[in-house]
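Hey team,

Filing this mostly as a record. A colleague (T.K.) asked me to run one chain through the structure pipeline before their review meeting, and I want the input and output archived in the tracker in case anyone asks later how it was produced. No errors, nothing strange. Just documentation.

Input sequence:
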Amino acid sequence: MLYEHRWLRHETPSWSELDNIFPEVENCSWSFCDEFAENIKGYSMSEGDILEFGVACMGTITNLAEFHPTRKVFGIDHFKGLEETNQPTPEYAGWYPGAFALGDPNHSGMQCTLEELLDRVKSYDNVNIIVEDIHDLKDPTEYGIAKVSAVHIDVDIYEPTVSALNFLDKCEWDKIYMRFDDWHGHEPDYDNHERLACREWLTKNNYKYELMENGLAGMMVVFR
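Output structure:
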């Protein structure tokens, strides 16, 4: 069961009744990260590793680890913050180069060293943090990643989303449950980022999918 949280049009500076990237999906509800973690089993993802792209201050990955203590949970981040995107971005998004990096003065959770940040997950035996640029990732087997059941993508902008999805093509999976943290469904100001990268990926690979949530966050199941 998904928890419904309505992403209301008055809560966002841009709004379109028809989503420009996924016009076939009318549902604009969205769920929180902890609900994504809880719902993984609900979508018959009974086994398999969990990946997170964009770990930042470790809040989501610890939640995933607690809900699924018998699964391996892999977090991928270089902790240098956002790169400069070539895509148009609304000024109010706060997606400046270096945002969410270690030491970013605008984000209190990142006021620490990498060692201190990694200490936050030391008590979770099932968590594996891969400190690497998303564009330079090696074969999944080199990190011990086996069959994947669920993926959380929280990299905000277009380019790293493309690389995260391309990495998934190298992973083993038949059906995968996905959450995009900065999806911004029905928001034209964000049409060129996570939603666009996902649409291009689905089309390129001819993957079948069910998009359940198309609001601030996006949730879908993808079938190979």
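Quick notes for T.K.: Helices lie at 33-39, 59-67, 114-119, 158-170, 194-205. The chain has one domain: 5-223.
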